[in-house]
Write a structure and sequence with these properties.
113 residues; alpha+beta; OB fold (Dihydrolipoamide Acetyltransferase, E2P); five-stranded antiparallel β-sheet; three-stranded antiparallel β-sheet; 2 helices; 10 strands; 16% helix; 45% strand; Two-component system response regulator AgrA; LytR-like; LytTR_DNA-bd_dom
């Protein structure tokens, strides 16, 4: 399976893993997450932990409130604690210091280019 099914309001949508950059906790809505792609952001009622457990080969936790798609990582800046994502690395998300080694290891060994 190369997609996930999400429910957004009253609609059920299919989102391809290859389109997802990262997933983060919603900043304003408790219990909601934001699934961020190059073109859209989806708000859905789901838990990060559930996604992390269902798709461990695709997503890695980079922060307490964020998961990143391993295949979308273009660069990692250890000084600024940022992971650059997208076709040209135009999107970024921060990571926690204690997760740096695990992110780097997973990206080198499993992340696609």
């Amino acid at each position: 399976m190369n997609f996930m099914i999400i429910k957004v309001k009253d609609e059920t949508k299919k989102v391809m893993f290859s389109d997802i950059l990262y997933i983060t906790s919603h900043p304003y809505k408790p219990h909601y997450i934001q699934i961020v792609t190059e073109t859209e952001t989806y708000d859905c009622l789901q838990k990060l932990q559930g996604i992390e457990e269902m798709y461990p080969e695709i997503f890695i936790r980079c922060h307490r409130s964020s998961l990143v798609n391993l295949s979308k990582i273009k660069a990692i800046n250890s000084r600024e604690k940022r992971i650059f994502l997208g076709e040209k690395g135009e999107h970024y998300i921060t990571f926690s210091r204690r997760r740096y080694q695990d992110i780097l290891h997973q990206w080198i060994n499993k992340g696609g280019m």
